[in-house]
User: Fold this.
Amino acid sequence: MELLTNVLAGIVGGLILNIMPCVLPVLAFKVQGWVMQTDISAAERRKDALAFLAGALVTFGVFAAVIISLRASGESIGWGMHMQNAPFVAFLIGLLFVFGLNAVGVFELSFAVQSSGPSEGLWASFSHGALITLVSTPCSAPVLGAATAAALGKDAVWYETLLLFWSIGFGLALPVIAVGFIPGAIKLIPRPGEWMNTFKLLVGFTLFGSAIWLFGTLQRQLSVTASNDFLWFLLCLSIAVWIFEKIRLGPSEGAGRVLRHTCLLAAVAVSGWVFLSFEPAPTPGASGPVDLAQATKNQETVPDNIDWILYSQDVRDQATKRNQPIFVDFTADWCASCKTFEKTHINVPSVRKVLAETGILAVKADLTKSDSKLWDVLGKLGRNGLPAYVIYFPDGSHDLMPEGPPLGLIDRLKDASKKFPKNKFKAN
Assistant:
């Protein structure tokens, strides 16, 4: 019964992922394909939906296999942890960038159900299902936590992990399945027209925006030189796809075209060898213990931003000795929901005022880079995905907020202050 409940949670959570900021731009790309193919047969539309679903399920199946392997080796695991891997983030940026170039017309890559042949259209739909899965995994969504916690749990059987990942993939593909299998659903998609040119450009710009957002994460993970070199690689890649289009539309046929494509691929490989180093960002030097008394005073005099303290066990131990609660935000630069909720619900005047009045310290547990210890801390709370918000009390208990935006944060902070008032804090 519990497995069934988690599967349903996975389906609902996967469906909600479609409106998350990391997925919506790519889903718009799929809408473009629908608009161009509003007159296809019902059978072709069903094949398109099933190919899209297959792309999502296969990709989630690969993720499940990796998770099962890591869990068997004793590694700490969490939802979105692959975004801590710089080469994977770079791959995703390159993928979004190329799809953006396609949308703005630099080269032509068909995502119709049928183009030069059925197999090409179905392969495009499969690839698009895989792409939307890749960009969805940094995000979390309400209801999704129960499924991911069960799938990533140390006691989960391998087939439970696979089934739960597939349930998320099914939910993620549900809008496409609905268009493919529900008669009349395609009528909700506007007919092709001049507006399509504007829509394609907007899709391209949103994909570029997604790539820029992920590049911010890559900058935190790599050295300045490695980050800049990656931009040079993107330039080479852009030129390559432009030349690819010129070859495709050119007069050459047969062996001549194959030779040109081979030389082009070799040039891309050489540019990758030259520019892709993935040199990690330098690790900050060790700093002394944080003075919580001084940090509490600083918090009272920061009017425009929260003066975050980085999470560490030492900070928790000090807070316990001082009889002082702390509010911890588990976040990462690659988590769009985390950054959105921080701007809309946490780093706002009303919350900053309550933090200053109560003396509860704002602590950030940053999972942008690989940190197995932080995943372990998060796992002890019964969570495996971001964002997560918790108030730790000095008596060893905690107040874990529900998934989603930290609604009611002010009331929870005030309740914590009533239990552990500021005037009862002890000296360091």
Notes: The two ends are 49 Å apart (CA to CA). Residues 111-120 have pLDDT under 50 and may be disordered. Residues 223-279 form one domain.
